[in-house]
């Protein structure tokens, strides 16, 4: 028997998957990561969940996907995996004024 939440979940057809693919392709292009990267797979799963729950507007999905990918880039594990290129802790901004 289905629980009350799963009754409302939207089944996805090929047109739905194409819309989600378009959104994910745009995010992957913007962040310069392959679709099969773990971060992009998590973004894809989030987009599918949101779409199935009724968020079908492509602009809104794109905004949420961008935020999710940015959050993944700022996560502590991203700093560890960034290796020696990372000179500062992730999320650290230098807000001090420099004299000219």
What does this structure look like?
- The longest helix is centred in the first third of the chain and has 18 residues, at 14-31.
- The chain has a domain at 11-74.
- Mean pLDDT is 79; it is low at 79-96.
- It is mainly α and 100 residues long.
- It has five helices and no strands.
- It has helices at residues 4-7, 14-31, 38-52, 58-73, 76-82.
- The protein is globular and about 35 Å long.
List keywords for this structure.
5 helices, globular, 100 residues, mainly alpha, single chain, 60% helix
Give the N-terminus to C-terminus distance in angstroms.
Answer: 70 Å
Per DSSP, the total helix count is 5
Strand content: under 5%
Count of individual beta strands: 0
Give the low-pLDDT segments.
79-96
Concise structural overview:
The chain is 60% helix and 0% strand. It is mostly helical and 100 residues long. Residues 79-96 have low confidence and may be disordered.
Break the fold down into its secondary structure elements and pairings:
Elements: H1 4-7, H2 14-31, H3 38-52, H4 58-73, H5 76-82
């Amino acid at each position: 028997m289905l629980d009350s939440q799963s009754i409302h979940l939207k089944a996805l057809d090929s047109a739905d998957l194409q819309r989600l693919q378009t959104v994910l392709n745009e995010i992957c292009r913007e962040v310069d990561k392959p679709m099969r990267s773990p971060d992009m797979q998590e973004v894809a799963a989030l987009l599918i969940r949101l779409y199935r729950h009724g968020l079908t507007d492509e602009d809104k999905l794109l905004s949420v996907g961008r935020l999710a990918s940015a959050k993944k880039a700022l996560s502590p594990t991203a700093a560890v995996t960034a290796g020696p290129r990372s000179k500062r802790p992730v999320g650290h901004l230098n807000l001090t004024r420099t004299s000219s």
